[in-house]
Amino acid sequence: MNDRGSRLSKDAVLDAAADLVRAQGPAALTMRRLAGELGCAVTAIYWHVGNREALLDELVARTVREMGRIRAEGATPAARAESVALELRRKLRARPHLIALVHERGLTERMMLPAQRALAHEAHAAGLRGAAAAEAVRAVQFHVVGFVLVERNRERAPAQHPGEPDLWDDATAEQDPGLAQAFADPPDVDRLFRATTRAVVASLWGAVPGEGGA
């Protein structure tokens, strides 16, 4: 084992494994490849984290913990609920392959619980209780997860022929040239997410102030 391998730690193994999964998916994570990334013997990895299944379990547990670090910000319950949605989307977008591992192991609900609790807290602060509070929490949660799934599907989709700009004909352009031009440009997904999130939250929590949660 070289000097780098002799300084190996469990956290270093998990960091390198997570980087591999993020970049290339779980199939890329082999013990031999991970050892090459770390510059150590395969046996050193076994010493720190066990076999590959144990390593995947550790990555899942770490991902659940990371997803649980949700902090609401803003001056009103609605603004804070919006900030939770923004943070949840950011976390889901940052680690799609790791999220898939969590889902495969049946821990999605546990992973989402901290965000649900943060949203429930803000629903209570807005005066919502019982079924109304649960509906508000789930509406935001489903909106975020659904939006992320659509984003991922669009990113992985093959090139479309004709594409969206080609499908807006001259008649539409004559009726609403601004609309036709907007569809000719790629969507600003960050702006779209903020707008739709604000609409969902405002309908259930009340209006969000101008800069709230953004």
Automatic annotation (TrEMBL):
Any one Gene Ontology molecular-function term assigned to this protein's record: DNA-binding transcription factor activity
Record-annotated HTH tetR-type domain positions: 7-67
Keywords for the protein's UniProt record, in alphabetical order: DNA-binding, Transcription, Transcription regulation
PROSITE patterns, per database record: HTH_TETR_2 (PS50977)
Keyword Chloroplast: no
Kinase among keywords: no
Positions of the DNA-binding region: 30-49
Pfam assignment, any one: TetR_N
Protein name as catalogued: TetR family transcriptional regulator
